[in-house]
Write a structure and sequence with these properties.
Layout (H helix, E strand, L loop, with lengths): L20 H8 L3 E5 L2 E4 L1 H20 L2 E3 L5 E3 H7 L1 H4 L6 E3 L5 E4 L4 H9 L10 E10 L14 E11 L2 H21 L5 E4 L10 E7 L5 E5 L6 E3 L21 E4 L6 H8 L7 E8 L2 E8 L6 H8 L4 E3 L2 H8 L15 E4 L8 E4 L5 E6 L9 E3 L18 E15 L1 H5 L3 E3 L5 E3 L1 E8 H11 L1 E2 L2 E2 L10 E5 L5 H16 L4 E3 L6 H11 L3 E5 L1 H5 L2 E6 L5 E5 L3 H11 L4
Helix pairs in contact: 1-11, 2-6, 2-11
Bound molecules: zinc ion (ZN).
Length: 571
């Protein structure tokens, strides 16, 4: 490709619409342009990168018996009504009608469509396992699309669905996908860490997210440097850790007036206490039934854990009227002493001596509240949001906090969709059985953005060779010099003949401009042809990642490039 012909409109200035480095660089390097909020046109360089990532994914999916299909973007409402998600999806779903008034959506995901496909075709256990995948656009009408490809309304995803005859089969499919994902991200030149995650509303109990740890990430991750445990903040397990026996004895329970003092911070300031001396009492309705949840003052309740623990469908904070009815006080003064609803407490509450609690009375708190003597807890459980510094649930070392970009997720669905949609097959013993399913996604664009977040410098993108749009750019310092031009075209043809992806910068521009563009776009290797080195029969080979410059005889350039490309990684 000749640079003069390449449609890669680079920008010197950072576009104001872009906050994240990856977003800025994808616009500046001419990889893509915004067409509407959260929707992008990929320009030639950007699409080449996308296609390379897709090809790596395709190879690894095929290697685990994945078979590629392509499902439509537009999906009929009926299958979503069968699974119960037509209403559940809410405003995030793009909906449309055809000329006959029939309802459709733009697929936000494809579980329903694939289940509908397989249920009418696959009848016998002999046809299982079946692993089908596609690389297709998805649509989610995000409230706030942002960060370029990180959170778009249209995005490219690889989604695989596995159909197995039993849990054991699902396990095999799940771990095959898990290990394929490890290989995919490694081949794309980015470290993505499998992180235990919560399965949320999708069902099933085992799921891992693949996270690229980066400041730009929207997710919170806790991980242990010692044993490798990693989980997202919703999932991370809290430990029932016996704290050192507190000094001092149980003091007499006492009511203190705390006029207009209701938050933990206010109470602490007013009573000269620390948040860890306080117990937060939160009143919830679990499927309409009032319960109280207790956490230490410096901890946050994890509602996902509480809902799971109570095994309820709907968990919501109680409204003001309910709080007044149950505690006898307005919001902000609830406490465990004398409260007549089930009390569920996080483990850490066990170890608080002489706690500060709400008095269930307006403008009053109790000090020196102690477990067993002053209040009883129905049951202790892991209910808090784990924080950096908390002990690792596997080895006890302190957990570190980090930000993560979720680039993939593997998920055991079990029989949620097959049961809801009547997708069954005949077992060996002739019994109709629902398929046991898994689903496995990778955000293709988001992976590219994550790679850039981890591979750039002040001058631009530093592509890993495996997904670079082109491998080499040849830059003659002056195209007005026939000797340089001739040498440049000769090398260009030689590299092309050798199957190396190469761009020749044939523009009549100052060398500084050409070098800047080469660095911004991030070609892994630049060959500079200047008058002085050419007189000596040499060219300069510049490695983008390290900026290392090698002067080499013209005749050995191809071999040197080959060696770098075959090495896979720039030193
Ligand atoms: Zn650990």
């Amino acid at each position: 490709m000749l640079m003069s012909q390449l449609y890669a409109p680079t920008l010197r200035e950072t576009p104001s619409e872009a906050e994240l480095v990856s977003h800025q660089l994808m616009l500046r390097a001419g990889l893509m342009r915004r067409s509407a909020s959260g929707m992008y046109t990929f320009l030639p360089l950007g699409l080449r990168v996308i296609r390379k990532v897709e090809q790596i994914i395709r190879e690894e999916m095929n290697a685990i018996m994945g078979q590629e299909v392509l499902m439509p973007i537009v999906q009929p409402a009926e299958i979503w009504q069968e699974s119960g998600r037509w209403d559940e999806y809410g405003d995030e779903m793009f909906r449309l009608k055809d000329r006959n008034g029939r309802q459709f959506c733009l697929g936000p995901t494809h579980e329903e469509l694939i289940t509908a496909l397989v249920r009418s075709e696959v009848r016998s256990y002999r046809q299982l396992p079946l692993r089908l995948y596609q690389i297709q656009n998805k649509y989610r009408d995000e409230i706030r699309p942002r960060f370029g490809l990180m959170r778009g309304r249209e995005f490219i995803m690889k989604d695989m669905y596995s159909f197995d005859k039993d849990e054991e089969g699902l396990d095999a499919s799940y771990w095959a996908a898990y290990h394929a994902y490890e290989r995919i991200f490694k081949r794309c030149g980015v470290e993505a860490r499998p992180v235990e995650a919560d399965s949320g509303a999708i069902g099933g109990d085992v799921t891992h997210e693949f996270m690229v740890l980066a400041e730009a990430g929207e997710d919170s991750v806790l991980h242990c440097l010692k044993c490798g445990y990693a989980a997202n903040v919703e999932r991370a397990e809290g430990v029932d850790r016996k704290l050192p026996a507190p000094n001092g004895e149980k003091q007499p329970l006492q009511e203190v007036a705390t006029p207009q003092v209701s938050t933990i911070a206010q109470v602490c300031a007013f009573l000269n206490k620390e948040p860890q001396d306080c117990i937060k009492t939160l009143i919830y309705l679990a499927d309409g039934r009032p319960v109280a949840a207790l956490v230490r003052g410096d901890h946050n309740l994890n509602e996902i854990k509480l809902r799971k623990f109570l095994n309820c469908d709907v968990l919501e904070l109680a409204d003001e009227d309910t709080i007044v009815r149950i505690t006898g006080a307005p919001v902000g003064f609830a406490g465990p002493v004398g409260l007549d609803v089930p009390l569920y407490a996080d483990y850490a509450v066990k170890y608080i001596l002489n706690a500060v609690v709400g008095a269930n009375k307006q403008d009053a708190h109790l000090i020196n509240a102690n477990l067993d003597r002053d209040f009883q807890v129905t049951e202790f459980a892991d209910l808090r949001e784990v924080q950096p510094g908390d002990p690792c649930p596997r080895c006890g070392d302190a957990l570190e906090g980090a930000r993560g970009i979720e680039v993939g997720q593997v998920f055991k669905l079990g029989t949620k969709y097959s049961k809801a949609m009547g997708a069954t097959f005949l077992q060996e013993n002739g019994v109709e059985t629902p398929f046991v399913m898994g689903c496995y996604g990778i955000g293709v664009g988001r992976t590219v953005a994550a790679v850039i977040e981890k591979n750039h410098d002040a001058d631009g993108i530093i592509w890993p060779i495996s997904i670079a749009p082109y491998h080499v750019i040849i830059v003659p310092v002056s195209v007005k010099d026939p000797a340089q031009t001739e040498a440049a075209y000769k090398l260009y043809q030689e590299l092309q003949a050798a199957g190396i992806e190469v761009v020749l910068d044939d523009r009549d521009e100052r060398p500084g401009v050409k070098f800047k563009d080469a660095d911004l776009i991030g070609f892994p290797i630049r060959v500079t042809i200047g008058p002085k080195s050419l007189e000596k029969g040499e060219m300069e080979l510049v490695i983008r990642r390290t900026k290392e410059v090698r002067s080499l005889p013209v005749g050995s350039i191809l071999a040197a490039i080959r060696e770098i490309l075959e090495g896979g990684e720039q030193e």
